[in-house]
Write a structure and sequence with these properties.
Helices cover 48% and strands 4% of the residues. The protein is mostly helical. It starts with 8 loop residues before the first helix and ends in a 17-residue tail after the last helix.
Length: 237
């Protein structure tokens, strides 16, 4: 059990015990860490009164580092603790929850990096001794669908032959974020690549087969000498 040392050590101990019996183990561990750091902060500023001031609490919030969402979660826990102090007759300033912003910074690949990714995928060795013996055929096609249509990896791997309309060059995605169906157009060049891929792997006539099903491929498909004929390179555009 953590031994809190600040002026609010008893109240912190009681609150942590309550969280232990009422929350999941992961939530309890997060709250325990948060309360321990808050206790250390109170000790560092030599806090001598339980009625915490606005200045003290604003100062604590300013010590928090990390993603905005993580900081907000920490503040929420302490807000709940401070609200619980009312049952002890203790009135402490409750800081507002900081605004959560999108901290994600995307990485933009250069044209040379994209070319290198395709080049490596296109030269993968045959997976003769791997669980997926078609890895050298599937990866180039998977990457081109993700790059050319902006698909997520889960959406790509869930595609079946029946989801591809080669006449219109449109993919039907049934397993997307939010469980919504959406239709995605392909570039004519990509449509032709995918058509050759499906023909090379013998998928024509099997609407339910997954485009990238290693279980189907391992036992029932023999790749022809022209198996890589579908591979072409996209321009930077």
């Amino acid at each position: 059990m953590i031994q809190f040392k600040s002026i609010l050590n008893n109240e912190l101990t009681d609150f942590l015990e309550l969280r232990k019996v009422s929350k999941s183990q992961s939530t309890y561990k997060h709250d325990r860490h948060t309360l321990q750091n808050f206790d250390e902060y109170l000790c560092s500023i030599n806090c001598e009164t339980k009625n915490l001031t606005e200045a003290q609490m604003v100062g604590w919030v300013r010590t928090l580092t990390g993603k905005s969402s993580s900081i907000a979660n920490v503040v929420i826990v302490i807000r709940i603790f401070l609200e619980s102090l009312l049952s002890y007759g203790i009135h402490a300033y409750i800081p507002p929850i900081p605004k959560v912003s999108d901290d994600y910074v995307p990485y933009i690949f250069s044209d040379d990096e994209i070319d290198m990714i395709f080049s490596i995928a296109d030269t993968l060795p045959m997976g003769r001794f791997q669980k997926n013996t078609l890895i050298h055929v599937e990866y180039p096609m998977i990457l081109r669908l993700m790059y050319g249509c902006g698909l997520r990896i889960g959406e790509t791997l869930a595609l079946k032959f029946k989801d591809v309309d080669f006449n219109t060059g449109v993919l039907t995605l049934n397993y997307t974020k939010g469980n919504k169906q959406r239709r995605v157009p392909m570039h004519p060049a990509l449509t032709e690549i995918l058509k050759k891929y499906c023909m090379a792997l013998g998928m024509v006539g099997y609407p339910e087969v997954l485009l990238f099903s290693k279980l189907y491929a391992l036992n029932f498909i023999i790749i022809s000498q022209n198996k890589r004929r579908y591979r072409i390179k996209y321009s930077a555009a």
